[in-house]
Amino acid sequence: MNSEIARYGKYLAEEKHSSQNTISSYLRDVTQFSDYLEAHQDCGLRDAQPDMVRDYMSWMQGHGKSAASVTRFLASVKSFYNFLIAQGELRENPVKGITADRAERKYPEILTAKEVELFLEQPQCVDAKGFRDHAMLELLYATGIRVSELISLELDDVNLAAGFIRCASRGKERIIPLYHGAVKALQDYVRDIRPQLVADQEETALFVNMSGERMSRQGFWKIIKHYQEKAGIQKDITPHTLRHSFAVHLLENGADLRSIQEMLGHADISSTQIYTHVVKRQLKDVYQKAHPRA
């Protein structure tokens, strides 16, 4: 990775407080563009021209890249060049004015209320694993937090007496309330189960694996897939599915977008507005199926 891209990565992390996934994606896009310029245009990133950007987009499409990938590439390199301009190292952004073909918007998979209930019933509270898994899934649906935030939670981030959790992510902190069932599941886990699981009494992680160490993203993914199969739900459930379902169910029951935005930790309200489109699409589907003249 050259020094420009490395400095850009540091800027994304320390000043923009971007997520690790965003940083990795942006750096990968810029690095691949840099490699293309050297191999096909015999120039570096600073010397790129708008026609070179368009040529690379055509090259991406010719190699099977989706419209969404091309759109993300544009966002990545536009941000990179804006960074160089802000640093006084470049005068014009070669990506300015260039647009990609509109990507077909894919709406997130949403579980119905009955499917959520079925899914949350799968962990059997008969052993330590069952109690722990039940608490994790209840907490995820109760709060809509990201899986990265779930596994990063510390024991001190949970206030069961007041019924809320404190979630710190991307340089910001938010307080999210818990419904009674989630509080009860967490109480049982924290009081009776977690002390049995932790390998080191100095461990601060709220959720630990069966070896007593902090739960990993991969470990939690396996848990989700296990209970999806056990429940017999045909939809593809990921750790984010409960987050999406949390937002849509709140919206369907009268919650306002700003409150949902705050609980989800979205920096921009436009990220939250996708859930209004999901609700409208669901209503349209119901109408088409139920109206006698539809």
Description:
- By secondary structure, the protein is mostly helical.
- It folds into 2 domains: 3-86, DNA polymerase, domain 1; 113-236, Orthogonal Bundle (hpI Integrase, Chain A), CATH 1.10.443.
- 59% of the residues lie in helices and 5% in strands.
- Strands 1-2-3 form a 3-stranded antiparallel sheet, with no helix packed on it.
- Helix 2 (20-41) packs across helix 4 (67-86) and helix 6 (128-143) crosses helix 10 (239-252).
- The chain is globular, with a radius of gyration of 23 Å.
Structure characteristics:
294 residues; DNA polymerase, domain 1; hpI Integrase, Chain A
Q: How many domain modules? A: 2
Overall 3D shape:
globular
CATH superfamily of the largest domain: Intergrase catalytic core
State the total count of DSSP E strands: 3
Short description:
This protein has 294 residues and is mostly helical. The protein folds into 2 domains: 3-86, Orthogonal Bundle (DNA polymerase, domain 1); 113-236, hpI Integrase, Chain A, CATH 1.10.443.
Topology at a glance:
Elements lengths: L2 H12 L5 H22 L8 H13 L4 H20 L26 H8 L7 H16 L3 H6 L5 E2 L4 E6 L2 E6 L2 H18 L19 H15 L7 H14 L4 H8 L4 H22 L4
Antiparallel strand pairs: 1-2, 2-3
Helix pairs in contact: 1-2, 2-4, 6-8, 6-10, 10-12, 11-12
